[in-house]
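Homework help thread (please don't just give me the answer)

Our assignment gives two proteins as sequence + structure token strings and asks us to describe the second one. The first is just a warm-up. Here they are:
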Amino acid sequence: MAPVWTGLRRLRVLRDRRIVGNVPPWISLHFALVIPFDAGAADAATAQAQAAARENVRSVQNATGRTHPLQKGDPIGLNPNAGPDGIWARWIPAIGWIRSHQTPWLQGDRMPGITLAAYLLLAALGDAPLVNLPTKSASRVGCLNDWRPHGDSNPRPHSSPCVLAPKRSLRVPRLRPGSLPELRELGDQRGFLVEGLRLAMARGMLHFCELFGQAAWCVADQRRELFEFRRLDGKKWDAYGRLPNRKSHCLGHGKRWPIGTLESVPYPKVAFVEGAPDLLAAFHFIFAEEKTDTVAAVAALGASNRHLAPESLALFAGKHVRLFPHRDEAGLAASRAWARQLKEAGAVRVEAFDLSGLTLACGDEGKDLADVAQIDPDCFETTRKFQEVMP
């Protein structure tokens, strides 16, 4: 509001000094907002101009004995009490502009009016984060950290408003905790314990919602800048516009910042995984191996994000980090890059878990941490490393 009020003061000075004259109001206001303005000097110039104009009015009255035409309606503010709405016109200059507006100007005012309206709307939206006003998306995706399951005695750190507020306005569906049937459906599909999924919800990284008319689960952290959605029934998202059929649907930005980094601060050990399913698998094994007090789960959403944000890397200093790379060329290359960056950031120990030799119950070869949850019983019994996977 302050820039607009300053612009109105500018315009009044310009009109008093005959710089803008009877320019259409939208163009005049835009001109007044853009040009440099010194309020003190402008006020002094206005007073000087009005004094000279009043002296001119008196000389005309003395010479002719008639009222000067400028005094009727007082369009430039010579007499603040002139006319029935003179006081309002003094404080709201737009009243005088509207009264002096001419119908032929409407044709030329349309485009400047649209331009200025768009400018003011964007300016208002841009000013909201500066005063910590909650945005619509932030209010709809509040933190789900009101409870934690039995066994997780390590409290989550409280986040500040500047961390929770998204940097961009996102059209995120309403996120909520999952019901027991939803948790069971997701757990049955992938072999996860319901208690492990509840642990993920308690840490604020697993949510449920409705997206594109389908029940979905979502991973996100307290930063509320990046969201990855997957269908609860395990199917792919339908193609839409330029988007093809896909396993996951992402909203937001900032993939260089791993999901769960801030949540990992209180924990000495970190399970660093790739992708949303592996993030849930990490919580499954954290609970199953009774390591809820010592291990945090963090996920990079995609092997293509090889360069992690320096601000996030600093939070791994002094920690023991175990990476779980996918058994493909992209996953191994990303793991090597992440390990190097984590070590340079000050992590005391960085290691990678070898998933080779993993056989699933269906007989297929496993390739990621989520597959370990569906390991063949014989493979589990004969391969010692799969009996304890968390650091």
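The one we have to describe:
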Amino acid sequence: MEADFRTAVLAHAPLAALVGERFTPTKRDQGGALSAIVYHRISGRRDTTQDGRSCLVESRMQFDFWSYSYDEVKAVVAAFIAATDGALGTTGGTNFKHIAIDSERDTWDAAEPGGGEQRVSLDLLIWHDEP
């Protein structure tokens, strides 16, 4: 699911122009070029009905957006949110049914070389077919 979602949102040209291939799972290259996106799957809940499993999964994904300035990171977030609209449907082997923003947080990392980097974190709830 994670790789298919990455493929689906990077098909959105404005997002791809901002981050290129700097859209990685779990960590990013320290000191690497920005803007960048790092993603983590936080949880996955399999849906059930009275008849048993529905074959739907609600995955909570965290996306961390990094850039050198607040305006730059917010531009990446805006492009990503626009890209999620186009991610519904089937990409690879995953059928994406519903995508919703659960929360958004702004932070700043002063410990990074060069005086600090801006970060925004988004939690998405993504409903998709079970693999």
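TA reply:
I won't write it for you, but here's a hint about the kind of observation we're looking for: The chain has three helices and six strands.
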